[in-house]
Amino acid sequence: MKACFVFRLFLLSFGVNALSLNANPNSEPAANASCPLVSLDARTNIWAKYNLHPNAFRRHQVLAAAAVISDDLLNKQARKIADVGSFYWLDNTTNMQKVEEILPEVPCANIVGLVLQGIQDRNCTREGFSVPDHERYQRSYGDPLATLIRAYPRTAFAIIIEPGTLPAIINNPNVSSCQALAKSYRQNVAYALNALKLPNAITYIDAGHGGSLGRDVLLQPAAEELAAVYKAAAYPSQLRGIAVNIGGWNSWDARPGEFETPYEEPASKRNRAHNEKIFSQLLGRALDKLGVPSNAIVDTSRNGVIGLRYEWEDWCNVDGAGFGVRPSVVPGLGEQHADAFVWAKAGGVSDGTSDPSSVTFDPFCGRRDAFSPSPEAGEWNQAYFEMLLRNARPVIAVDT
Ligand SMILES: *[C@@H]1O[C@H](CO)[C@@H](O)[C@H](O)[C@H]1NC(C)=O
Ligand SMILES: *[C@@H]1O[C@H](CO)[C@@H](O)[C@H](O)[C@H]1NC(C)=O
Ligand SMILES: *[C@@H]1O[C@H](CO)[C@@H](O)[C@H](O)[C@H]1NC(C)=O
Ligand SMILES: *[C@@H]1O[C@H](CO)[C@@H](O)[C@H](O)[C@H]1NC(C)=O
């Protein structure tokens, strides 16, 4: 196993795709051989059968954080989080190459959650925005991910596709760089959906959240864009629907909603999607009319406390946040367009630095409702993690 890994690193240094080693279907890699072959039916809620896998990377991250917590209760709560399933982000090529390390130990009843985010530059209104290169997307993300999933036919996968891009496109239809992003998005997402049309994978396309796509004037264009991608991918059988609130802060069902506004406001701003339950229903119905799979998974990793943001668009390291509902099937199955609550975001990992002198500084991370100090995006923030633990709703129960 170790030798194999070293050999792979050796190949990598010469630019050979490590995953091609596993491409031969006759030599299955070290998957959990005791599990049967997986066949996921995208017409059903697969979360009724599978639990989100607590992957080893996240487990190590959380256990390392727990090791430096001296408070007895908080320490026990932290260790509980190590057992909570969460998604692993394929948002750079390093992570793409590392993901295989978590696969050999997956129990048969678990499903591995992956977030595919090969479109790194999504902020098309920013000066210097560059349109993603399709050939690179295919070579670095689409193809290796499909090869990996094919090499592990005894492991189930749930994949969230391209968070953050759809809202940028739909909110800026007349900006030429956003039109270029839209074209690229359609091509890349269609490619991914088609490549991932595999019996042991189920896919959800990211659809923003109530604040970014819930306005009356945006719901239909968003649904039409998703329909265009679905068509461009030739109606892939493994698409189950949409992923909402990914990395977000919105409540599932709070009434009144956190940003509920008077109905008389200008029609262009009118938004009935005050919570993610309403949002997934409104967008789900628009998708149903267009014949697009419309079931949602909802990120509840950091939405335990609401009412913390000054504005709906505040997205960075929200201060006072807590872990939300643990991954589970949405109650009242069939009543709404929602399959499951999942933890997509790894709570404790920073969204961006609070240091205004950093070249990567985004003003949203310096707002009054953003936690400070916060390290660079992707880095661990111990204080933030401990805050999420303390503020978790439901409270994290431990044996005392
Ligand atoms: C394999 O699957 C079984 C059954 O789900 C599980 O008990 C075990 O921990 C898994 N991992 C390995 C390495 O066998
Ligand atoms: C997009 O870029 C603009 C301009 O640089 C910036 O103000 C904004 O915060 C960025 N949005 C996100 C979501 O990063
Ligand atoms: C985009 O341009 C069209 C045609 O000029 C116009 O009708 C529409 O209101 C514009 N949309 C936005 C969001 O500015
Ligand atoms: C990829 O992302 C991870 C965090 O998810 C980070 O630790 C790593 O440094 C990144 N690698 C590159 C090459 O950007």
From TrEMBL:
Catalytic site: D351
InterPro entries: Beta_cellobiohydrolase (IPR016288), Beta_cellobiohydrolase_sf (IPR036434)
GO molecular function: hydrolase activity, hydrolyzing O-glycosyl compounds
Name of the protein described by the UniProt record: Glucanase
Family label: Belongs to the glycosyl hydrolase family 6.
GO biological process, one term: cellulose catabolic process
N-terminal signal peptide: 1-18
Entry keyword Glycoprotein: no
Taxonomic placement: Eukaryota, Fungi, Dikarya, Ascomycota, Pezizomycotina
Binding site for substrate: W89, D91, H209, W315, K345
Pfam families, A to Z: Glyco_hydro_6
Hydrolase listed as a keyword: yes
Superkingdom assignment: Eukaryota
UniProt keyword annotations, A-Z: Carbohydrate metabolism, Cellulose degradation, Glycosidase, Hydrolase, Polysaccharide degradation, Signal
Transmembrane annotation, as ranges: none
Documented EC number(s): 3.2.1.-
